[in-house]
Amino acid sequence: MIRHSKNLLSKLYTVRFIAVFILVNSMAYGQKSKGPITLPGTYTYSLHSRFTGGDYEVMVSLPHGYKSTDTTHYPILYVLDGNTFMPLLTMMQQFFIHGEESIPMIIIGIGYPVQGLMESMPFRTRDYTPTHDPSFDSMLSKELHLKIESGHASAFLQTLSKEIIPFVERKYKVSHDRAIAGHSFGALFGAYTLFHQPKLFNRYLLSSVSLPWDNGSLFKDEELFLRNAPQELNAKIFVSVGSLEGFEMIPMMKKMTKSIRDHAFIGLKLEERIFENESHTSVVTTALNQGIRALYRKE
What we know:
Layout: H1 2-30, E1 42-48, E2 55-61, E3 74-80, H2 82-98, E4 106-111, H3 121-128, H4 134-144, H5 153-171, E5 174-183, H6 185-196, E6 203-207, H7 218-228, E7 232-242, H8 249-262, E8 266-275, H9 283-295
Parallel strand pairs: 3-4, 3-5, 5-6, 6-7, 7-8
Antiparallel strand pairs: 1-2, 2-4
Helix pairs in contact: 2-9, 3-6, 6-7
């Protein structure tokens, strides 16, 4: 009797499991796709630049509670490589605000009309690098089977300062508190911006700056900037690198930050970090996480 009850119970569980399995699978395969996932409160605009001749996707993420009818104006964070990093930073902001570790801000992702990071390589190489490096262009062109032409950071800086930023500030309620965030080539451009238009942003998140680019050519820009810079620079700068990155990355970062510190700018807050056991790719999430919290830390 007992054995019969156990067998019956076992069969009932088996039948129920099969029924649930069939139901779940029929739901999974019977449903039609609703298309790509979209993030609430995000909008995308297309922009063609007269300076670079390129096309851009300007992605906007508004903080919860944003209203066009009130008087609140928000800090703004411009993120390079927006196709890749925009979703990550949008979700980060929601958690940070909920945990009171950051302030609400408008996040602007600057990307391209492509699907992913590798497809954007020709455009980010063009826009984020300050000098032309034919050997790099040739190597990457052969690898990706695409035409690569580096060295147009000056034109992209014009695109950013005279087209993208004015467009955003006309359309949204932003304060004068502007930040820029970038990784690798994006951070190289962020540093280039600091040395050429230091007042364009007052917060800089520079992750794994590609300072080895073109035999360290950016140090010439830094030297010229420091030679002519005023004594006051009201800015927060967060610079980081992973401990497992190439052997040049850490000493080059330290060289750049030391030169800035030695100038003893009034109003400057500079923080540098080396993240242990992080490579050039794995360090991204850690750098963005720590960088935003450092730049927007409540005093």
